[in-house]
Amino acid sequence: MKNGGKAGQDWSHLMRLAIAGDQRAYQELLTAMTPVLRGLIRARAGGMDMSWCEDVVQETLLAIHLKRATWDSDQPLRPWVYAIARHKLVDAFRRRGRSVHVPVEDFAETLQAEPEPDSFEKRDADVLIARLPERDSALLRCLAVEERGNEECGARLGLSAGALRVALHRALQRLARLRQEGEL
């Protein structure tokens, strides 16, 4: 996939492999996806600072990770990813008190930004997750940072599949509350 890869195969193929358990494919997908999302969000940010844009990129990547099982693998991945990015961008503007309309068409044909190292990703995730209660922190580290599957994380934390979903939902709500209260 270096240097653009095959446009028809790119992200969709990698996501199918990742969902099947191929961690290497998942890492390659995230590595390819991050600079594209960063360029897309920066282009639509309307003068917002780099750290604000990076927060939106991280929120988008986390949402993609957490919702990856909802993607219809018979459909191309890019429109699904761009829809998530659009929603996260609109949410971020709303939190800042700005009303914004970002047409879906703007995300349909976007040129990829040049890949660049993502120096903020791990540090930011660690800082955000560390502010949560221990169980929430352990759950999010397992799922999002370590990229483990639901089954493995559930076993590690002693949670059934249903309890894991409930705990994840609550952890994300706490994270959102901290963010809204300005603690993150």
Description:
By secondary structure, this protein is mainly α. The chain folds into two domains: 7-116, Orthogonal Bundle (Rna Polymerase Sigma Factor, Chain: A); 119-184, Arc Repressor Mutant, subunit A. It has nine helices and no strands. α1 (10-19) crosses α2 and α6 (121-130) runs antiparallel to α7. It is globular, with a radius of gyration of 16 Å. Mean pLDDT is 80; it is low at 1-9.
N-to-C span: 35 Å
Q: What is the number of independent domains? A: 2
| Main β sheet profile | none
Residues in helix, %: 55-70%
Uncertain residue ranges: 1-9
Q: Order of helices and strands, N to C?
A: HHHHHHHHH
Percent strand equals under 5%
Family: Belongs to the sigma-70 factor family. ECF subfamily.
InterPro entries: RNA_pol_sigma-70-like, RNA_pol_sigma-70_dom, RNA_pol_sigma70_r2, RNA_pol_sigma70_r4_t2, RNA_pol_sigma_r2, RNA_pol_sigma_r3/r4-like, WH-like_DNA-bd_sf
Keywords: DNA-binding, Sigma factor, Transcription, Transcription regulation
Domain RNA polymerase sigma-70 region: 36-98
